[in-house]
Every structure is written in C-alpha cells, then in structure tokens.
Specification:
422 residues; alpha/beta; Peroxisomal Thiolase, Chain A, domain 1; 2 domains; two-stranded antiparallel sheet; 15 helices; 14 strands; globular
Length: 422
C-alpha cells in the first residue's frame, strides 16, 4: 500500500466505554460477551405512577474520576460520561498530547455527538426558576445543557485545537461521528479524530412521552428479559444511557508512532426515509440504501460482511423493517451473515447507541467473538428468520463488520469496520 494511501486510511487505536453493563471498556466487553443484562428498576427518579418503571442505567458511576469535583458539580451527566470515555480512549490509544506541538494539536478533532445533550439542566433550571425566581438559576446551566460541551471539555483537557463538532441525529447520532471522522482523515484534514457519542436522557418526561407513544417495554416485573430484539414477544425498547469514544487515526500516523491498530473504518453512509416523525418506512428502503452505500464507500461486497451490529431496538416496527432492509441490501448473503443487537443488554442509549455498536463490532474483529442477542427465545417467524446469534456469544472469525443506526425522523447511518492490513 503506497504511503500516500496510508495517510488517507482511518484506523482505530483507542476505545472507551461507559455503559449499563460496565463503566470502562474492559468491563463492558466482558459482560457483553457473557450476555449480562444492564436493565433494572429506575433509580434516577421515583417512577411511582408511571407505566414504565425500568431502565438501563449506568451504575455506580463517579464523575470525579474523570474531572475535578467542582467541575463535576457544574456539568451534567452526559458531560461526565463524555469525559470518562474520552480519557479512557486516549489512554488506550497511547497518545500523549502533552508532548505535542500546537501545530500537531491543530490536527486533532473531537466529535462526541449527543442527541439530547444536558436536557436534565432544563428540567432542573425550570424548577429553580419557578420556585426561587430567575436570580437563583445557575449561570452554569447553559454550558451544562449544550450538546457540544462534552466534546469541548475533552478538547480543553488536552489542548486539542482542531474542530469540535456535535451533530444530533436521534438514534443515528454517534454513527454520524464516524462519517465525519472518516471524511476528515480521507481528505487529509486531520491526523486524529476522537469520535463517539454520549447520552443521559433518563428523565421523567421522556419516560412518560415514550410510554404514551407505546415505544417502551412495560415488562416491569421481568426486567432483565424486557429488551428482546427480534423476538415475537417484544413489546418495546428499554430506555438507556451511556457513552463511548473511538480514537480514529490516519494509518500513516498510527504506524509511525508504533500504535496498536484494532481495526480500520473503511466506509460509511447516511440516508433519510422521508416518511414519518417516529416510524420507519416499512419497506426499509432508506435503511437498505444506507447499508448499500456504506459498503460501496468502503469497497466491500455484501458477501464480505461477516457480522452486523444491528440497530435492533426490540420494537415491532424497527426489528421487522431492519430485517427487510438487510435482506434487500444483502440478497442471499442475508441468511449467512451473523447479526446481533447489543441493545438486548444495554437498552437503547439513543445518541450513544451507534458507538456501542461500534465497540461491539470492533471487539468481534479483534477477539473473534460475536456478542449475542439475549432474550431471543422465539424468533418472530416467518419474517424475522435471519441469524440473530440468539442467547449466547459465538466464536467466529470476523474480518469485516457493519454497524447500523436508524433514528426518529427517518435518519439512517451505517458504518463498516474491517481488520487492518497494511
């Protein structure tokens, strides 16, 4: 491979995770492969009187491990998560920004997307405003609710003066970070991109609205079995929270410093259904186009995909539509490719869902293990008849993996990762 091409290839050199099944990447991966459910009773607020009283919460998380106590008090939970995963991913990559020149730090971008940002600050601030008046609203409320602030604080932490970007694309949000990061490296604009997503959306108003939309599972007495993608008895998704960051780096840059390369991001694409504010297009055309274009972008044939980390929300419409889209995009290979949904364990983390899928796919490539779709007791036949890797993890050689993210409003994003070969 010519040196100029290595400069335009985006490789993965660092990983960070905060999830309902682990507050670091190693714990997340161990529990993911073991099929551990992160679903339990809601503790973020008193759910008495709510139809839905379960969630996939991040547990025992200490924000002061990622930032000083004063800043932790001033910032919101999604920012706490962002700082934790950003620091873990940078440490995992072996990058030492303190030794870099200002010109080198100019070539590092931070794209840690969030769909909702610090929406909790609006709720808290509104309560203070109503009870105590405008003079008592915290001056830090505005930066704490800004969806870009997670990325901003990471850039401040390391003195990274490349662009800080935030995009909101509902459940496709964090896959958008991979699309942007890939293009920045392909164009030669950046040497390093910290890409991912963070979300802490577990507020009473969100649960009430989604429950009234009939989007959430109401298995309050069967919590760990509530998220059951592709199962005929699924009754909605489980609301979750979490974050992840993947360090993308030009292959030339990574090889020059002797970094461990975990995978390569080879292609990505985004489309729109242009159909409905919440329901996917039943024909799955937009999702199919996103998958097809991502493969074309990466120069990958459908029969080269070994594994798909599915969007797999555990809702009747999404699971059926995604299955139709996979069949349309992959043809006969659809029945041969392994597919699983991490949401069966971590719930639906909205803006962090795509990066959690990426961590799952990269892990499959690195470790030769495909995470399971737990709780898949009765596939919804005859239509949902693909290989969803039910119940237990599977040892398999994975060279190429796809991640799917399909959001409210018909926003579709797909990325393809591959084993790196120089």
């Amino acid at each position: 491979m010519p040196e100029k091409d290595l400069a335009r290839r985006a490789v993965v050199t660092g990983l960070g995770a905060v999830t309902p099944i682990g507050n670091d990447h190693a714990t997340f991966w161990k529990n993911l492969i073991a099929g551990v459910s992160g679903v339990g009773p809601i503790t973020r607020f008193d759910p008495t009187g709510f139809d839905v009283r379960i969630a996939a919460e991040v547990k025992d998380f200490d924000p002061t491990l990622a930032m000083d106590r004063k800043m932790a008090r001033r910032m919101s939970r999604f920012i706490h998560f962002a700082m934790a995963v950003g620091k873990e991913a940078v440490a995992d990559s072996g990058l030492n920004f303190s030794e870099w020149t200002p010109e080198q730090r100019d070539r590092v971008a931070v794209i840690v997307n969030s769909a909702g940002g610090g929406i909790e600050e609006i709720v808290i601030g509104n309560d203070v405003l109503r009870v105590k008046g405008p003079g008592q609203v915290s001056p830090f409320a505005y930066p704490a609710l800004s969806a870009s602030m997670g990325g901003c604080l990471i850039s401040i932490e390391y003195g990274l003066t490349g662009p800080v970007i935030n995009q909101s694309a509902a459940c496709a949000t964090s896959i958008m970070s991979f699309i942007d990061g890939l293009r920045m490296i392909q164009r030669g604009d950046m040497d390093v991109v910290l890409a991912g997503g963070t979300e802490a959306p577990l507020l009473p108003v969100g649960f009430a609205a989604l429950a009234n939309m009939h989007a959430l599972s109401k298995r309050n007495d069967d919590q760990q079995r509530a998220s059951r993608p592709f199962d005929r008895d699924r009754d909605g998704f489980v609301y979750g929270e979490g974050a992840g960051v993947v360090v993308l780096e030009s292959a030339e840059h990574a090889l020059a410093r002797g970094a461990t390369i975990k995978a390569e991001l080879v292609g990505a694409a985004t489309t729109s259904d242009a159909f409905h504010i919440s329901a996917p297009d039943p024909a799955g055309r937009g999702a199919m186009m996103a998958m097809t274009r991502a493969m074309q972008d990466g120069g990958v044939a459908p029969d080269e995909i070994d594994y798909i980390a599915a969007h797999g929300t555990s809702t009747a419409l999404n699971d059926a539509t995604e299955t139709r889209a996979i069949k349309a995009a992959f043809g006969g290979h659809a029945h041969k490719v392994a597919i699983s949904s991490p949401k069966s364990m971590v719930g639906h983390t909205i803006g962090a869902a795509g990066v959690i899928n990426a961590l799952t796919a990269i892990g499959a490539i690195r470790e030769g293990v495909i995470a399971p779709t737990i709780n898949l007791d009765n596939p919804d036949l005859p239509e949902l008849d693909l290989d969803y890797v039910p119940k237990v993890a599977r040892n398999a050689k994975v060279d190429t993996a796809m991640i799917n993210g399909f959001g409210f409003g018909g926003q579709n994003a797909v990325a393809v990762f591959r084993r790196f070969e120089a």
